Amino acid sequence: MLLLNQHPDYRSPLDPVDAETLDMKAADEVERYLTYRDNHAPTPLHTLPALAAELGVGTIHVKDEGFRLGLGSFKALGGSYAVIRLVLEEASRRLGRQIDIAELHAPEVRSIAAGMTMACATDGNHGRSVAQGAQLVGAKAAIFVHSGVSEERVAAIARFGADMIRVKGTYDDSVAEAARVAAAQGWIVVSDTSWPGYERIPGLVMQGYTAIVRETLRQLREPPTHVFVQAGVGGVAAAVAGHLALALGDQRPTFVVVDPARAACLFETARAGHPVKITHGEPTVMAMLECYEPSLVAWRVLSRVADAFMTVDEEDAVAIMNRLARPAGNDPAIVAGESGGAGLAGLIRAAADPEIRATLDLNEASRVFVINTEGATDPERYAELVGMRPDAVATTTKGADA
Which residue positions does the secretion signal occupy (predicted)? Predict the structure, then answer.
């Protein structure tokens, strides 16, 4: 199902606050911060010529965030970046001078960080990033996880020294509980979603994601004509779409937001024309995208720069995991978690429908960009769905050059 953006703000300039958050200067600063990360390296950009030919498009490029900062997910860019920024800002305030990231490990900065606790709710990946960032700067982390988060994902967060707090219900319930407890304890909420009165920190998280676009535009010979990006609350979709709009202007690509059909909060928000909270139903296999209410900041951006919204089904997500693990032709094998390939699943759905192809002007000249947002962040679940362990999927460098 495809829904074109009919919002009154569609194609309007970004709100000045959002433009400042996602512009080139901000992205430069994110990349500067990344140079101080021990395991930082640009993630691979793979080409899929066999799949492109099969779908009748010119090229497909996949940015593989499964290699990001040792955390296996694009979320590594957001939460930890926001934590570092918040610690440096607090140190600047207390020490009475501007503290740069070069001083992050200075004793006086570490002492201030030690008195700070970063809290967040997570499906798995964002919490791991916040916990890693807290460990990096010497702060504490309290991570709230709902009942649907697997024990393997909980353990992956806990290994960074975070306090893990289980919450009954859904991701949205854990968001509310994290905000409540943090307010009572004086902790700082580092959320990747926003609500009325809480926008700046989610904006910093989104700002971290601009590194994906900066790297991609350098890796590509030509900018993409079409981009399909999956959404939970919408943070990465908004960051990618917003930065592309600012960087490319009138030459920006057609941007499609892809939701799981079982958790389509952005699709339904686009249909309603304003943010809506949808009813929780049967869980989706796309666990990292299982969100029932959009981020207000993300929607403010997407209402202006997203061109269309669509949904994919459970079988689409599992099929793309398997296709990427067992590629055709010279396509490289890619490990994509349950949510990682949802954007590519959206492209496959769109390419197979003549009406949608025509609406989006998808054709043999189209240069399509998608993001594998996560690797096998739950290896047991991956093996169950793909029939192979992630370490057995022979990821190669074939097709890695744009």
Answer: none
CB atoms within 10 A of CB 182: 21
pLDDT above 50 (res 398): no
What residues are annotated to the active site? 75, 123
Q: Please choose, from the candidates 391, 377, 380, the residue with its C-alpha nearest in 3D space to the C-alpha of residue 126.
A: 377
Q: Which residues pair with 259 in a beta bridge?
A: 311
- CATH top class, domain 2-74+201-392: alpha beta
The one-character DSSP state at 82 is H
Q: Which residue, among 339, 402, 401, has the nearest Cα to 65 in the 3D structure?
A: 339
Distance CA 23, CA 203 (A): 12
pTM equals 0.94
- CATH 3.40.50.1100 in the chain is located at 2-74+201-392, 79-191
Express each pLDDT in 267-282 by its tens digit.
999 999 999 999 988 9
Beta carbons of 253 and 227 less than 8 angstroms apart: yes
